[in-house]
Amino acid sequence: MHESIEKIISNCGAELYDIESVTENGHKIFRIYITCKNGVTLEKCEEISKIISPIFDLNPPVQGQYFFEISSPGIERILKLPRHFKSSVGERIKIKLNSGEKLQGIIKTANDETVEMEDGRAICYSDINKAKTFFEW
Fold it and tell me: Tens digit of pLDDT for each residue in 75-120?
């Protein structure tokens, strides 16, 4: 299912960022995050939703009742995959390592195995428990 969702989103001129299934306020939510070169618009989310929603009517992505959302990952977004780190070069991030240590800084570079911070620290993705971008207001 993941590949077909990704193909639909790509055909609409966007890119799949992430998929999550969460429970918020007692409601199941199946959420798809997308990105676009010129930013995610409400119209783009609506376009993709109108294509995917009938597919989910026939083949639900989760069991039971759920809400379906398409959204931008936002300015402060979770980083899970190497491509997330690569697309966030130059941005501020917070990282929690598997050891419990918390770091923050600016991404200098990222490749398929590590992210390098502006202060020279290279961190293997396998050592990262959680990471997200953050914006200083």
Answer: 899 999 999 999 999 999 999 999 999 999 999 999 999 999 999 9
- How much is the pTM? 0.84
Instruction: Look up residue 125 and give its DSSP letter.
Output: G
Measured CA distances, 12 to 8, 40, 44, 104, 112 (Å): 6, 12, 8, 35, 27
Distant-in-sequence, close-in-space partners of 97: CB < 8 Å, separation ≥ 6:
103, 123, 127, 128, 129
List the 114-117 sheet strands across, edge first.
Answer: 122-124, 114-117, 102-110, 92-97, 128-133
Per DSSP, what are the bridge partners of residue 32? Answer: 19, 70
Instruction: For strands 122-124 and 114-117, give the pairing.
Output: antiparallel
Structural domains of the chain sorted by starting position, each given as residue range(s) with its CATH number in brackets: 2-71 (3.30.300.70), 82-133 (2.30.30.100)
Total length of the chain = 137
